[in-house]
Amino acid sequence: MNTQEIVTSDSMPEAHDSEEFVSGIKVEKSVSVNRPIGEVYSFWRDFENLPKIMSHIKKVEVTNSRLSHWTIHAPARTTVEWDAEIVEERENELITWRSLEGSEVANAGNVRFVEAANGTGTEVHLSMQYDPPGGWLGKFATWLFGEVPEEAIEKDLQQFKQLMESVNYKDTKELPISA
User: Fold this and answer.
1) What is the four-CA torsion angle of 170, 99, 111, 65, rounded to 10 degrees?
2) CB 153 within 8 Å of CB 127
3) Would you report the helix, strand and coil content of the chain in percent, each value rounded to 5?
4) Is 80 exceeded by the pLDDT of residue 178?
5) Is the pLDDT of residue 76 over 60?
6) What is the DSSP letter of 176?
7) Please, which residues bridge with residue 89 across strands?
8) What's the whole-model pTM score?
9) Contact 81, 88 (CB under 8 A)
């Protein structure tokens, strides 16, 4: 992708309007990573890396520069899948996404990358909202099985920080998927 290119939703397929997600579960978490913003952004932007740091993600298949197919682990040893699109992107700064119409899990969010105040790293701010499968019953099942979204995302971001700070960025392609 050209570094000047900004992706917007003007020419994209029909997707969920973010207003639909007001009743869903909202999670906002941040982490500071002691790595240059370009490396942090590049790792995250390669969505196929995300199962290496996020325990609930089983697989991400990138369809093209804006579309991807996600498979996540769900309660009771099941999986849930959806297609997502990038609706706005600014290299080394922002990725905003939402699920496509007909997805099993309606979701939307963004991840922002900001140079740390001391200039030696990157602040990563993740904000997402989703409606679990099964509506309120799904929310209850999530609670029943001990799945607290805020805690899971916090743990995943800490794993991301540890990974990015402990290995050469280019070596992360060889790492196994998170269990």
Assistant:
1) 40
2) no
3) 35, 35, 30
4) no
5) yes
6) P
7) 7, 95
8) 0.78
9) no
Encoded amino acid at 157, one letter: L
Residues 142, 8: Cα–Cα separation, whole Å: 33
Residues in the chain: 179
**SS3 state at 135:** helix
Residue 10 in tokens: 């003007």
Question: What value does the mean pLDDT take over residues 67-75?
Answer: 88
Kindly tell me if the per-residue pLDDT of 21 is higher than 50: no
Nearest Cα residue to 82 out of 96, 70, 74, 73? 70
Per-residue pLDDT, 139: 60
Q: Regarding predicted confidence, which is higher, 9 or 121? A: 121
Q: What angle do CA 144, 150, 152 make, to 5 degrees?
A: 75
Beta bridge partners of 21: none
Between CA 106 and CA 113 the distance in angstroms is 24
Pick the CATH number of 21-45+86-167 from 3.30.530.20, 3.30.1330.80, 3.90.1150.10, 1.10.3210.10: 3.30.530.20
User: Which residues in 46-59 are b (16+ Cβ under 10 Å) and which e?
Assistant: ebebbbbbbebbbe
> pLDDT grade, residue 134 (50/70/90)?
low
